[in-house]
Specification:
Elements: H1 26-55, H2 59-82, H3 101-109, H4 112-124, H5 129-158, H6 169-197, H7 203-230, H8 235-254, H9 259-269, H10 288-309, H11 315-348, H12 361-367, H13 370-373, H14 381-388
């Protein structure tokens, strides 16, 4: 189930780049610049939101948002230091070359690596795999939960503009802008993952995935925020806890991943279905059909509660409530309007199962086909494994 990185590709042309075998095409550099811009703006706005919460004495939201930011940076730093971020032997140009232990972790904790990877991709024609890996981690670990917390703050705190402890209108605008940027971050990060695991994809498919994912995280975050606002003080936490155990039950029932891994992957799945749509149903921790059926049921249940308990508000407070409710409803409609189109395209691009231990004998033989198993350099078995996971299909098939 766990895949070893993201494959570089050339959208619409099928020409591969990156992985040290060639320079990145111009379109990939453009994507890196756009992704880095969203990343910088998203983090900058999150830090401004932290300053806002601190200045207004909203310590619960301050520590919640700060905890999300620190957690995301810490996990990304651990990945760089102990995971795929170690420099290759003899790679003196690596940003981490010569650094070990605590200095290496601290430099990556403050986001040094993602900027150095972007610089290498843009100015030295390096591959974009590692940059988009770090961007994906930031999206699912920081942007998605941060958007939920900030929308929740918008509903339960920023809506109280007439209260002595309430913020001014500028605070509400900052929260709206920050959550919108987080939605962009999640949509772009997950769309780039689709691009990396299936290099034969088209530009229209990547754009479609980005739009669909934007609506998905917006629908989920806005609905949870409104539900938490009408079920204070513990409804928000109960909704997240119940959904986590439902997702964990689906993971155990599907039996595609080990239980220990399922406990971890169920956390981001509470907010967004992070696995690529081009993966086969058997390769998902939670199949997409089951996942979105659960989301529809939860959406209906939460909105029944919302309609029953919605406060009678008017003026600026009413505008904030109406805006969040409109966001939840409109983004949900757009999600399920775009999902069938993206799903149809994903089935055309569906990847073969990469683990030969899964499936029947026919699938095993297909995965061990000579052309599928040959590495790009004809070297050792590790290179062959790298080429097998990119999902290439023999043109003669």
């Amino acid at each position: 189930m766990v895949r070893d990185g993201f494959q570089p590709c050339d959208i619409d042309s099928g020409v591969r780049g990156g992985n040290g075998h060639g320079s990145s095409p111009r379109w990939e550099k453009t994507i890196v610049i756009a992704a880095l811009t969203v990343h910088v703006v998203d983090i900058g706005l999150d830090l401004l939101v932290l300053v806002l919460f601190s200045a207004c004495g909203q310590w619960a939201f301050f520590f919640g948002t700060g905890g999300v930011v620190i957690w995301a940076w810490f996990v990304a730093s651990l990945y760089v230091v102990f995971g795929g971020g170690s420099p290759a032997p003899g790679d003196i140009d690596s940003p981490n070359a010569g650094r070990t232990g605590l200095p290496k972790m601290l430099s990556n904790f403050v986001q040094v690596r993602i900027f150095s990877e972007a610089y290498r991709c843009i100015f030295h024609g390096g591959d974009t795999d590692y940059f988009h890996t770090l961007r994906l981690m930031e999206a699912i670990l920081q942007s998605a939960p941060g958007a939920v917390l900030q929308l929740y703050a918008l509903v339960v705190w920023a809506a109280a503009v007439d209260s002595p402890d309430g913020p001014d209108e500028g605070a509400a605008r900052l929260l709206r802008l920050s959550t919108f940027t987080s939605f962009l971050s999640v949509g772009l990060g997950l769309a780039m993952w689709e691009q990396k695991v299936q290099f034969q994809t088209s530009s229209m498919y990547v754009i479609g995935v980005a739009v669909m994912r934007f609506f998905e995280v917006a629908s989920r975050a806005a609905t949870l925020a409104i539900f938490g606002g009408v079920t204070m003080p513990f409804g928000f936490l109960w909704a997240l806890a119940v959904d986590y155990f439902v997702i964990l039950f689906l993971i155990v029932q599907h039996r595609s991943v080990q239980f220990s891994y399922g406990i971890i992957v169920a956390l981001p799945l509470v907010l967004v279905s992070l696995e690529p749509l081009v993966w086969r149903r058997e390769d998902h921790a939670v199949p997409k059909d089951s996942y979105y059926v659960v989301r529809v049921i939860e959406f209906i249940f939460m909105w029944i509660i919302i309609l029953q308990r919605q406060p009678a508000v008017s003026g600026p407070e009413g505008e904030i409530w109406f805006g969040c409710e409109s966001l939840a409803l409109l983004s949900t409609v757009c999600l399920y309007a775009t999902l069938p189109c993206v799903w149809f395209m994903a089935r055309k691009l569906e990847l073969p199962r990469e683990n030969s231990e899964w499936g029947d004998d026919g699938m095993r033989e297909g995965l061990h086909d000579d052309e599928m198993a040959s590495g790009s350099d004809g070297s050792d078995g590790s290179d062959a494994g790298y080429e097998r996971q990119d999902g290439r299909i023999d043109p003669g098939e």
